[in-house]
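User: I'm curious whether this sequence folds into something compact or stays loose and floppy. Could you predict its structure so I can see for myself?
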Amino acid sequence: MRIDRISLEQLRIVSAIAEHGGFTKAADYLNQSQSNLSRTASLVERHLGVKLFDRTTRHFSLTDEGEKFVVMARNILEFYTRETNYFQDYVRGVNGVLRLATLPSLAATFLPSLIVKFRREFPDVRVEVSDFTAEEVLSRAVEGTIDLSITAIDSEYLRDDPDRFELEPLATEEFFCIVPSWHQFAHLDQISWSQLSEEPFVSFGESSSVRRIVDRALYGKDIRPSQIVTARSVSSVAGMCAAGIGLSAAPGFVLPLMNIQGLVFKPFEGAPITRTIGIVTPKAKALSKPALAFRELLSTIDPEDLNLPPRTEWHGLKDTIG
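Assistant: Here's the prediction. I'll summarize afterward.
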């Protein structure tokens, strides 16, 4: 089998023959002679070592191998067309695709207004947003499968190679206590972290940036909740708190996703516990034109256009990468 000798043009011809149900209609569609299509099909079959078509003067059909080959050919042609179009758009200017990786809370609360503004200015850019945990966002940044990662900036995630990444803070958000509305703490204006020592607690999953910051706040103050239940998703944590399984703590950008009946959010007393949100970029990575344009937006946008949560400080980007 010499499948590596098969060209894109030969893939197009075989796909057209299959799509149009034979050589006659495919020849008309491609504006080529039937004899040329027949020679191409025979050459492809010789390269593959299998028959793709059962054909007689009255009958035409794909063999089992032919059906599999046509599926592969169509996938290759679609991929080639899509990617070459993206590249051509990229060369022409700020076009193509912008791939963003971020936290679920930011994808739901922080990014939408930014994307709306970005799309108004750059309507030819297709934006793809993927949401992951903080560790997973960092992994995508390292792999180079995304253009920009907007995530929690936490030294613990970067301790193995702190000089590998460019860290640019965007905002700092305070943590709030998540309290069932019927709980004795619900009437308080503020809650101290020490008050959690006698309470059951609902914790985020271990890969969450929220979990790491809350653990440092609790155990750094030698606070031990009476029991801990762990849930991975924001909605699960909210549901468990509303059901009375325990209290929890979450930062401002997470709160809109926890705004369900039966919960209230109370600020903590004393020096605030915060999470910093920012851009994490591998230092060796050159940003695409859409990524540079989005980064420029982050440096110029008015924070009042972002609907920031309470007690969130917007830093923005101080300069741009030229």
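Summary: The chain has a mean pLDDT of 88. Residues 96-171+276-314 form a domain with the D-Maltodextrin-Binding Protein; domain 2 fold (CATH 3.40.190.10).
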